[in-house]
Each structure stands twice: as C-alpha cells, then as structure tokens.
# Entry
Amino acid sequence: MEDKILISVKNLKKYFSRGKDIVHAVEDVSFNIRRGETLGLVGESGSGKSTVARLIIRLIDTDGGNIIFDGVDITTLSEKALKPFRRRMQIVFQDPASSLNPQMTVGTIIKEQFLIHKLGTKQEQEKWVEELLEKVGIDPSFKDAYPHEFSGGQQQRICIARAIALRSEFIICDEPLSSLDVSIQAQIIKLLEDLQKELGLTYLFISHDLAVVKHLSDSIAVMYLGKLVEFSNKKDLFSNPLHPYTITLLSSVPTIKGEEKEVELKGEPPSPINPPEGCPFNPRCPKKEDICERETPILEEICEGHFVACHIVQR
# Structure
C-alpha cells in the first residue's frame, strides 16, 4: 500500500520564538495522505493546522521530523533541488483577496507560474491561461481584469486556477471557504470535487467547519494544541469518535434529526508557550485521570486505521 501514499509526514515539529518565550506550534505530528484522496485537518484556532500546511509545502522550515513526497524526503532540500517539487504541490489560502497581487491582471497572475518554470511559448501560455480560467468557471475574456473587479468567490476560483496551472498533484486548501458566503461555499466545494475527479488531485483540506470536512474528506486528522489527538477514516471518526476532544467537536455538527446535544467544552485552550504536562487536553477534559496530568499519551492504533492519543481509551 506504500505506493499509494503521496504525502507522508513523520514526527513533524515547529517552534517559534516570541521574545524570550518559545511557542510549541507543532509537536510530533505524523500522518499519511493517499493519492487521489482528501485528508481533512480539523481543530480549534491556534491548534497548528496552518503551520502544518506551511511546513509540508516548505514555506517554512521544520525543527524536526520528515516530509516525504512521493517517496522523496524533501525536508531539507535546497531551493534548487526543491523547485521540481514546487510544481507538484500548491496551496490555496483562506483570503483570496490578500493572496492575489492587486497590481497584476488575473491573466498575468496565472501566467507567472509558467514564466517562473520556463514553460511554453507566449502563445501557449496565453492559451493555457484561458483554458484554466474556463476550467474554474471564469470567462476567459476577463483575463485582463484586476482582482478587485471580481467577487470573493471569483477571486478564490482564480486562486484555484493558479494552484492547478502547473498540473500539480497535491493541493493544500487552508480554510478556503471561511471568507465566502454560504451559497458561494457550495459552488467552490463542487469545483474542488470536480477538479479532483478530473485531474486526480490529492487534497489536504483544513477547516473548522466539520460538516464540510465530513462531506469532502476520506480521512480526518484532529489536532489540539500542536498535537495530533485522533486520526481515522471519515466513517469511523464520525460514527465512533474516541478522543474526548473529538467527541466534543463532533457534538457541534448539525444533524437532520437534531437529537444530539452539544457537549460543552469548558475553558480556553492552554497557551502553546506554556503547554500543560501530560495530555495537552487534560485541563479541559471531563474524563481525565491522574495519569493524564503526568504522562503524554502516544498516538496508537486502537483498531484498524483508527489512531488515538488518550490514556483512557488505550486502556
């Protein structure tokens, strides 16, 4: 099954300095993403989701661990050695307006990918730009317009066109719907699904909207305070969540029957500057025991393909 894995993240770590303090942004995160599938990455704000995304795509360097892309460890590759891999993985950011250069036309924004990688003639580049705009639902005749002339949903479509311009295999979607109206969100979800089917794309989809994650994802990873606390296929995670934090998160997802009651999560997440001893969730966990305050649980496979980091569940 190893040949079906496109992305393998192993014991990823990242720390940031904030004055004299150290922020523990990502601690020993490991997971795999299979070709053509979508991994949903969920957790509260500040849990480290976006940092993981930027580490995987090498926008920032790791402080430990490995990133294996299609069998190649890209963790410490030089920019020159990394360039061929840049073509194969891209990212779509949360706010399309801030990720598009306001002084460039949308055609130039997309064409820039071809210029950087020295692909095609001028005529071919123009043709590719028009084809990409059409593929994401933008009239190619608007290629000479500027980003501010488009709606938020259209701007995100342009960002997606840029992300697939080099025929990338792996796309990170970092909260791509959060700045859009609900009606527009549905259109972007449909576009992402259609492109995945047509182009065989592999996604890492980061979101706080569990209903969307449930719809789009094949597998789901749950993060809390920089750590991975649960990982499973979508069906098992939603039907049988094991970690107390996951149970709390899923209780807030609306259901048709409306029978489930939301589990109240008391208190605020601890500071990543001064994380608690033992399990990171223990200060807020309604089921904690003495061991939870002393020892950090290891992510272990409880049943086939279902991993959880929890002392209580593992017993």
The chain is about 35% helix and 25% strand. The first helix runs from residue 49 to 56.
